[in-house]
Design brief:
The protein is an alpha+beta fold and 378 residues long. The chain has 3 domains: 130 residues, Beta-Lactamase (2-Layer Sandwich), CATH 3.30.450.20; 72 residues, Orthogonal Bundle (Helix Hairpins); 159 residues, Heat Shock Protein 90, CATH 3.30.565. It has 11 helices and 12 strands. Strands 2-1-5-4-3 form a 5-stranded antiparallel β-sheet. A 5-stranded mixed β-sheet has the order 7-9-10-12-11. The longest helix is centred in the middle third of the chain and has 39 residues.
């Protein structure tokens, strides 16, 4: 690899020059969130975007035209020059680059670096090297998030799995020692724990999809008030105390029709009601409104102690469960993510429906016109 000044190749000997890069292309590169450095076949830096300037702490005027080994004197964790250890221009001609790894740049600290080697001819010489630079903090945040998910999942899975294993093992080995009623109780416990595991895994999958914006939504038009009523009835049939729920309030003369993913909205309403059952007290009230143009609102209120105003933001954070260690801290986080994925909003405040503050969670979803078949039936 030749350095700047060798036969003046850095200035004119390469097919890829700064002048060949259009202004529009350079502007596009400047919009990238990661640092980008483009190197030619001679190892000369031909493009540096704005983010790379900031990460390296040097203006591009001092970087362009320089040998990449001087501009980016990368070293690994052992202090070795990365260009000596893994030079793109030396080694197997089948290499296409290297994945992200943490390397050090004097004066810039540690950066997450990845490279792509461009070979116009298969197994031919490297003509360009595309170098991506990223702050280590972002990677560490991602690693911390993954570790947090693993820790929470492990904690939440341990209890139900131990219960399922314990009861099933006891039944298998000592079946004849128990009465039919005792067996039914143990089998019911196994079923409940299995349901809990299933819900937890589904919630974790949804959280992962929300984090990568890959959660599919299958929109349809339906009456939100009717869905809320169905969800309440379903919970009561499943064992929730019917006396805890007040009749659904509010609505509109033309109905409360929305355009949304019915399954996901069922999940949203279910999570809000489950939160009120777990953390609230007294009567739980569901009400609907059309107070905002183009939106339908749903409020779920209880008569418990309410939410401390200092925690209004926290209740929607992933894995936040306040003083309740038995909570996964995923339910309200999913509510917020799913509602916002629909273009709606979510808020929390006091319910003010009883002697104590209570909690009021309100969501909004995009309204839809009443279907023609419904209009003809009215």
């Amino acid at each position: 690899m030749r350095r700047r000044g060798d036969d003046q190749s850095a200035g004119s000997g390469s097919a890829l020059t700064t002048a060949a890069i259009s202004g529009a292309w350079a502007e596009l590169m400047d919009e990238l969130p990661d640092g980008l450095v483009l190197v030619d076949a001679d190892g000369v830096v031909r493009l540096v975007n704005t983010r790379a300037e900031r990460l390296l702490g040097r203006p591009r005027g001092l970087l362009l035209g320089g040998a990449v080994t001087d501009v980016l004197p990368l070293t690994d964790h052992a202090g070795r020059s990365w260009w000596d250890v893994a030079s793109p221009w030396v080694g197997l001609p089948t290499r296409s680059g290297h994945r992200e790894r943490v390397l050090t740049v004097p004066g810039a600290g540690s950066l997450v670096v990845s490279m792509r080697y461009v070979r116009p001819v298969r197994s031919g010489p490297v003509e360009r090297v595309v170098i991506s630079l990223r702050e280590v903090r972002g990677r560490r945040r991602a690693e911390t998030a993954v570790a947090e998910v693993i820790a929470v999942a492990g904690h939440e899975l341990r209890g139900p799995l131990s219960s399922v294993r314990g009861f099933s093992s006891t039944l298998l080995r000592q079946w004849d020692r128990f009465t039919d009623a005792q067996r039914r109780t143990m089998v019911a416990t196994i079923e409940a724990d299995a349901d809990h595991l299933s819900r937890l895994l589904l919630e974790l999958m949804d959280v992962a999809r929300l984090g990568t914006s890959r959660l599919p939504l299958h929109e349809s038009v339906f009456d939100l008030q009717e869905l809320a009523r169905e969800q309440l009835n379903r919970l009561i049939v499943a064992g929730a105390a019917g006396e805890r729920f007040a009749p659904i309030e509010g609505g509109a003369p033309t109905g409360t029709w929305v355009r949304a993913d019915r399954e996901r909205v069922t999940q949203i309403i279910g999570n809000l009601i489950d939160n009120a059952l777990r953390h609230g007290e007294g009567l739980i009230t569901l009400s609907l409104d059309v107070d905002e143009p183009g939106m339908v609102g749903v409020r779920v209120c209880d008569e418990g102690p309410g939410v401390d105003p200092g925690h209004y933001h926290d209740v929607f954070r992933k894995f936040w469960h306040g003083s309740r260690p038995d909570s996964t801290g995923l339910g309200l986080h999913l509510v917020k993510g799913l509602v916002e994925a629909h273009g709606g909003t979510v808020s929390v405040g006091p319910a003010d429906v009883g002697p104590r503050p209570g909690a009021r969670f309100r969501i909004t979803l995009p309204a839809a016109d009443v279907p023609e078949r419904q209009v003809s039936q009215q």
